[in-house]
# Entry
Amino acid sequence: MSNELLKDLKRRMEGALDVLANDFAGLRTGRASTSLLDPVKVDAYGSLTPLNQVGTVTAPESRMLSVQVWDQSMIKSVEKAIREGGLGLNPFVDGNSVRVPLPDLSEERRKELVKVAKKYAENARVAIRNVRRDGMVAAKKMEKDSEISEDEMHIMGEDIQKLTDQNIQKIDEILKKKESDIMHV
# Structure
């Protein structure tokens, strides 16, 4: 039972790391990345639809994204959604696609992006700590229900703390790399 609990906690902590990686993928580092447009939602057919469901996003150059819109009647909506998406981008229509040049990041904007990255990392740390808390509660319940001894409970608590520390260290390493990417492009 205790191994199953640790496996479940590990899986949930890895899920928090996956969410962090996904959040970081959407942060601009100055290089074109198709994931940059993932948060953009397009008003398509009466509902907000993720951009990648109305067209194909590619990065033909290091400072340019291109969106090949499948339904040509959606081109203006896609352009508007990108412009108003809060990413500081200025797209333009180029025939059957929308081109999105990526401007150089100012020092001020880089610092803002680092703050956002730190916020994402803190959210991931909180998620990891919440998983740890759930694990400790479950371990104490197992001890209370006489499924494990007091010694086993302490060992399990140490294992849960080690898992937590390892994952928080991973978050710190990922954040440090992302900060470096943002500041030194």
